[in-house]
Each structure stands twice: as structure tokens, then as C-alpha cells.
Known about the structure:
Blueprint: H1 21-25, E1 30-37, E2 40-45, E3 50-57, H2 64-77, E4 82-84, E5 89-94, H3 100-109, H4 141-150, H5 152-156, E6 166-169, E7 181-187, E8 192-193, H6 195-201, H7 204-210, E9 216-221, E10 224-229, E11 247-248, E12 255-261, E13 276-282, H8 290-306, H9 313-320, H10 322-329, H11 343-347
Parallel strand pairs: 6-7
Antiparallel strand pairs: 1-2, 2-3, 3-5, 4-5, 7-12, 8-11, 9-10, 12-13
Bound molecules: iron/sulfur cluster (SF4) (2 copies).
Amino acid sequence: MAELRPPIESGAPDPMPYMHPVMVKNYGKWSFHSHPKPGVLYHRAESGDEIWTVKAGTARQMDHYTIRELADIADQFADGFVRFTARSNIEYMVADGSKVEPLIKALNDKGYPIGGTANSVSMIAHTQGFLHCDIPGTDASGVVKALMDELYDDFVKCEMPNRVKLSTSCCEINCGGQADIAIIVQHTKPPKINHDLVANVCERPSVVARCPVAAIRPALVNGKPSLEVDEKKCICCGACFPPCPPMQINDPVHSKIAIWVGGKNSNARSKPTFHKLVASGLPNTAPRWPEVAEVVKKILATYKADGKPWERMNDWIERIGWPAFFEKTGLPFTKYHIDNWRGGRANLNASAHIRF
Ligand code: SF4
Ligand code: SF4
């Protein structure tokens, strides 16, 4: 009998070979940690071993010269070990305390800011954008870099009431996740259908099933099988565009940007929360998004001035209340902030079935 082929295990790789040897040796046996200065963490193990972590901001999408430069710095100061965080910061682990300041200097000299720890504004978690995804309504890395240029001081200093996590999403439906401040593409018009292409490109039943408000129906247009959208029902979510690119929803004028605040994944101090819409209809002026930057900076400045120590954005808003949030930030409260769409409860596709 032929030998059975062993299964191929996929998933997250074993992290141990990539971990600094001091971390491997003391894995799960740490006695305490502290935060000596912005961008630097200190851990001491029960064995007495020590390790410092230095966090630097990067531009996320990097050319190989930049990656080699960062790797050379790791070889020189951090025994060749680095790791990237979910928010695209690079972390160097150093077992010798005397190397921390030279490492910081080497990174600063090359233009990498040190920060993003504790009560600072961390690097923005951002999605793939035009580089890797086929449905974005705006760019990701470019606009995130532009926005972080504006928030540089808040990254390198720990002056916020608590940590601030930002995220961007270049469509309305997929990656991005909950954040203290989330910047999300917002389509404002239903998709435009290119009926000549639908029959060749789209699997129509899956597109119909994809719509959360049942606004799509099969239709015969000019003698060809196609689809039609009931525009009164359509909530402009964009969910039909990925499985059916001829249902184009991205638009240079009508795809806007919305800002949501108060989302939180962790259950530290208070339970996890969903973020809520606070600004909508901002122009999608990539690559520098000046209008978005202005609103984000306004929210951050108000939170910084009014938040109590260790209050996360959602805790602060809960304490002062939403009317005070709009009053203090000066953001207009409009009818678009009220979710009074009564059809939602009955029609929204809220089942637990997975759809593709
Ligand atoms: S947020 Fe949407 S458009 Fe952007 S990378 Fe994720 S799936 Fe693609
Ligand atoms: S944009 Fe969303 S709501 Fe509108 S037709 Fe497409 S899937 Fe349905």
C-alpha cells in the first residue's frame, strides 16, 4: 500500500525560532514590566534576566532598501531579532540595557520615530488598499502615512488620557475593525451596473444572496441575463461589488469618508464596545486627506483636554454623554447620525450562516 501523505499543517508558524533567546528562555516566567519612556518597554524575568523593547513607527509598505536598513540596525543593536506589530510598528528586543539609547539614536538618525506605547496615539491599523485588494474606495498606506505625519507628536509623546488606537478601512464592509477613532469609506450612491459584463463575470445567485437588504434581483436587460437594484432599499454598503465588479460602487465624488469613535476590542477596565458614527460625508481627498485630518485632530485635542487619566475614548464619551461630545468637539450633529431605519430589524441579514 502506498504510504499516506502526511497532512500539511497551515496556520500561524511556530514563533519560537523568531523570538529573542532571552524571551524564549523566560517564556511565561516574567515577574514584572514597566514603561521607562515613550516607545520603550522593560521586562524582568523571575530568573533576573532583563529585556528592553524599543518600538519604532514604519510606513508599513516598505521597499527592500528600507527593510535591509531596519535589519542592519537589528543586527547591530538587537542580536538580529525584530517583530512587527499589528499596527505596523517594528519592535527591537535588547537584552543589554546599554544598547537602548544607541539603538534609539540609530533609528532616529534614519528618520524612524520611537513611540506608540502606553497613552500615546499608536500607528494606525490599516487595510490593504490598492496594493493588495481589488475593492478599495481609497488608498491605505499613503493616506495613513499622511495622517501619521500630522499626528507625529502624539505618537512620540505619552500625553493622551489612555492609549488611542486608530484604524482606516478602504471599503465599508471588510477589514479595519473597532478602534478609538475609525476612518471608513462611505459610499453614498447605489452601484452602477454594467449590464454587458454581468453575465460573463458574476455568479448571479451569490450576488443576490450577498445583499444584506435583499435589494438585488435577477433581471433580463437587452436580452442578456443581468441584475437590477431596488435603489429605495439599497443602503450603499458595497457588499455586491466584490463578487460582481460590474456593479461598480466606487466613485470619485460620491464615495466619501466617515469617522466613527469609541470602539474597543479589549475588556480592560470596561467591556468591549462598537464604535459610533460622528462625522460623515467628508471628501475622499487622497493622498493627504486634509479634511479627515482636521476632524481627527479636533477629536484627539478634545479627548486630550477633557479625558480623565486612563479613560479610553469610549469611557470618556460615556462619562460626558453624546450631546457633550458633539458640543465639545464642535462637530455638527445631523440627521445622518440617527439610525432610525426601521426596516433594519426585519430585513438585515443577521443570520449566523457564512456567505461567500
Ligand atoms: S478594507 Fe475593504 S477595500 Fe480595504 S483592504 Fe480591506 S477588504 Fe479591501
Ligand atoms: S450596495 Fe449593498 S445594499 Fe446596495 S445593492 Fe449592493 S449589496 Fe445591496
